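Hello Y.,

Per our agreement to keep a running log of every chain we model this quarter, I'm adding this entry. I've kept the format consistent with earlier entries: sequence first, then predicted structure.
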Amino acid sequence: MKIAIAGAGYVGLVTGVCLADFGHDVVCIDKDQDRIDALERGEIPIYEPGLAELVASNVGAGRLSFTTDLRAAVGAAEVVFIAVGTPSRRGDGHADLSYVYDAAREIAASVEGFTVVVTKSTVPVGTGDEVARIIAAARPDADVAVVSNPEFLREGAAIDDFKRPDRIVVGLEDERARPVMAEVYRPLYLNQAPLMFTNRRTAELIKYAANAFLAMKVTFINEVADLCEAAGADVQQVARGMGLDNRIGSKFLHAGPGYGGSCFPKDTQALIRIGQDFDSPMRLVETTVAVNNQRRQAMAGRVIAACGGDVRGKTIGVLGLTFKPNTDDMREAASIDIIEGLQAAGARVIAYDPQGMRAARDLLEGVEFGDSAYDVATGADALVLVTEWNEFRSLDLDRVHGLMKVPVLVDLRNVYRHDEVAKHGFHYSSIGRPAGLSAIGGAAEAAE
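Predicted structure for the entry above:
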């Protein structure tokens, strides 16, 4: 099939390269000439494991190309995906749909023959109706079916998610789009991926409801972690006991500093606004957002407590800046709140992340950046593990101890075991585990 992708950002690029790998003829379109030039040189603007290799192989095979010429690409396409950004609108939390609507107008002017226009971007309920209205108003003669096909891609595992999905949701109002979308995803039938057809508004809501539920699950286990600390229980064992119940499952039951990233913060806020617009308030989601925000702001206090209640003039090393491992995405990362809180308390912060430092330099003022975890540990009064990159899971703890000024390790991802760290001479603090809690007092004494 001939497919055009409007938007060569994260979702558009992953979608385009995976569809090309299925054997389709795909053109990715973007207005940013520098981005298109870079992609044509084989330079990938985002970090996603396996993406660069997949782009190179499909460009080499002639199935994938890049352009700024929307008219030619859309005119030749049987299916056009809209994969532009829908950031939270400043001030009110609503999704900013201006890029989606602009793309719809440009697509309307360019389509030829029957074309399925697919909204891949995460958009509020009713957006597909408006896209259809915009196209019909701009081109009354256009023969177009507008479809909702939300993405369910996890950064760091996006290619695998696209090729081995839990489900493929397609919302449509025009039955002519059904066989077309079935053909787009036909290569996945071998993996028995469930292709779920709904009406358009249902498909639009599924994405928001799914992400909000996962955000609630993360926030729930974080509150349980606080209770574990107060009650002397171990949140990791509580989570395992919960997760073994098939009705609950083990995923997203890992206590930490709070959720972040490009999806959960934006989508929970948008779902709250959608509920308000339809006079059907989402009270649980509202509380989830409030609790998560409070937690992220409280994390710097945990570090300060582990350092004896005062970090003024002290050097704090931060391991991990991105909101999760295997991405370079700094959007809504917990590290931002933690570092700003430490700086406000008078600390000097030095940080290292395998992929996130280029973006971090534009977001964080007054932060020094190291070349490795050991560089960051050198002369530090405390080391804070914020993002659980694999290279931080097996540090040479003897070496780290020897480099630090004060051996305080604050593990906000529960990567290490207390007994393992303690035998190397560290004062250790973790999340929701009794041994980690008891270590805070010792750390305070050492820092003093």
